[in-house]
């Protein structure tokens, strides 16, 4: 199988290595020539220091060579770059090519998920799927057992992705619930910012457990209102990814949240993380989706207050704790 991986960050590199080692012939594209030239010289992923790229894998900054003649295209750019990247690849996308989004985010203006953006740009007939779940690149490149879900409205596309990605260390389930997968994938990053803030404020494991529990309630409420399935939100792309992102030392969202909880301004926290912090870019869109579907998202609301209205994280927690009394099962 010939695969083009578009985006040479930590996730693009990790999946390119995985697919190459699965026996695919992989071409990895990065958008900055100097980044690719540095990786060609060093042989390693610049976002995953020490992780060596298979010599058989081709590295390029020339988009057409990464796209033409491929059976599968993997979109692994930051969510804020998905639309521009989809516009760039549009002239090259071939009729039966399968496109897999592995990015996590909601577009602020359109409120579209990643697959929604791809279909918006490439047309509803595009064979689009998504791969998501509890999957930190740092652990995937070490071959640590990881389990994810491949989704597409066309189950044949989901099964194609399952066959391409699955190996003895990387187990892939299939699903047709793209909405549930992508809402879970995007909103877990916003809740993880709150979890990180809790860590930065010095709060405890009880607090973290409460944020994860009430966080999946918020994510599920919105996803189900949008047509997602409960099984998806209690599954890998929902609860699974939320747990790993809220608790892992690898999480950029948790790390940025922690720095904010320790007093850094959001922009400074993001600069210090040196990698994409997707929760910041999806927070406003998540809130807008909550309003559109009339779903209450109190934690996400407070994350927006801290990120964009200079509310002290400690006051944000206080606001959540002092909300009106409610029943958990109402
Ligand atoms: N890293 C992980 O563990 C992981 C796991 C699952 C999903 N993801 C998702 O993968 C997506 C990619 O993130 P990442 O973790 O690889 O990011 P990263 O921070 O590791 O690297 C970002 C990469 O994007 C590139 N980039 C920046 N602007 C760009 C643009 N306009 N066009 C093309 N490329 C651009 C940068 O050069 C860099 O190589 C995100 O949506 C993320 O949520 C990441
Ligand atoms: O590092 P994060 O917070 O972007 O999370 C990476 C992956 O989405 C974990 O599944």
Automatic annotation (TrEMBL):
Residues 2-156 form the Glycerol-3-phosphate dehydrogenase NAD-dependent N-terminal domain. It catalyses: sn-glycerol 3-phosphate + NADP(+) = dihydroxyacetone phosphate + NADPH + H(+); sn-glycerol 3-phosphate + NAD(+) = dihydroxyacetone phosphate + NADH + H(+). Residues 177-317 form the Glycerol-3-phosphate dehydrogenase NAD-dependent C-terminal domain. The active site is at residue 188. Its main location: cytoplasm. NADPH binds at residues 10-11, 31-32, 104, 137, 252, 276, 278. Sn-glycerol 3-phosphate binds at residues 104, 133, 135, 188, 241, 251-253. Keywords: Cytoplasm, Lipid biosynthesis, Lipid metabolism, NAD, NADP, Nucleotide-binding, Oxidoreductase, Phospholipid biosynthesis, Phospholipid metabolism. Coiled coil: none annotated. Pathway: Membrane lipid metabolism; glycerophospholipid metabolism. It is found in: Cytoplasm. Its EC number is 1.1.1.94. It holds the Pfam family NAD_Gly3P_dh_C. PROSITE patterns: NAD_G3PDH. Catalyzes the reduction of the glycolytic intermediate dihydroxyacetone phosphate (DHAP) to sn-glycerol 3-phosphate (G3P), the key precursor for phospholipid synthesis. Belongs to the NAD-dependent glycerol-3-phosphate dehydrogenase family. This is Glycerol-3-phosphate dehydrogenase [NAD(P)+]. It comes from Roseburia lenta. The lineage of its organism: Bacteria, Bacillati, Bacillota, Clostridia, Lachnospirales.
């Amino acid at each position: 199988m010939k695969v083009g991986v578009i985006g040479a960050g930590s996730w693009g590199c990790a999946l390119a290595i995985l697919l190459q080692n699965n026996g695919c012939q992989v071409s990895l594209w990065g958008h900055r020539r100097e980044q690719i030239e540095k990786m060609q010289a060093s042989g390693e992923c610049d976002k995953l220091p020490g992780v060596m790229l298979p010599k058989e894998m081709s590295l390029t900054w020339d988009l057409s060579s990464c796209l033409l003649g491929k059976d599968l295209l993997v979109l692994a750019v930051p969510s804020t770059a998905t639309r521009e990247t989809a516009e760039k690849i549009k002239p090259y996308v071939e009729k039966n090519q399968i496109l897999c989004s592995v990015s996590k985010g909601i577009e602020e203006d359109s409120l579209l998920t990643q697959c929604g953006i791809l279909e918006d740009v490439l047309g509803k007939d595009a064979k689009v799927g998504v791969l998501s779940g509890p999957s930190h690149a740092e652990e995937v490149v070490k071959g640590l057992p990881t389990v994810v879900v491949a989704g597409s409205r066309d189950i044949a596309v989901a099964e194609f992705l399952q066959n391409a990605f699955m190996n003895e260390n990387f187990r892939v389930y299939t699903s047709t619930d793209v909405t549930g997968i992508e809402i879970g994938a995007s909103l877990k990053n916003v809740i993880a910012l709150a979890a990180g803030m809790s860590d930065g404020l010095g709060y405890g494991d009880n607090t973290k457990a409460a944020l994860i529990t009430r966080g999946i309630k918020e994510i599920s409420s919105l996803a189900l209102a949008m047509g997602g399935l409960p099984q998806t939100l209690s599954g890998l792309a929902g609860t699974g990814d939320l747990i790993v992102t809220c608790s892992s030392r690898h999480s950029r969202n948790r790390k940025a949240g922690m720095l904010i909880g320790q007093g850094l301004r959001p922009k400074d926290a993001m600069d210090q993380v040196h990698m994409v912090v997707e929760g910041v870019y999806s927070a406003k869109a998540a809130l807008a989706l909550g309003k559109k579907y009339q779903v209450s998202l109190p934690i996400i609301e407070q994350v927006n207050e801290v990120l964009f209205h200079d509310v002290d994280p400690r006051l944000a927690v206080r606001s959540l704790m002092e909300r009106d009394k409610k029943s958990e099962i109402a």
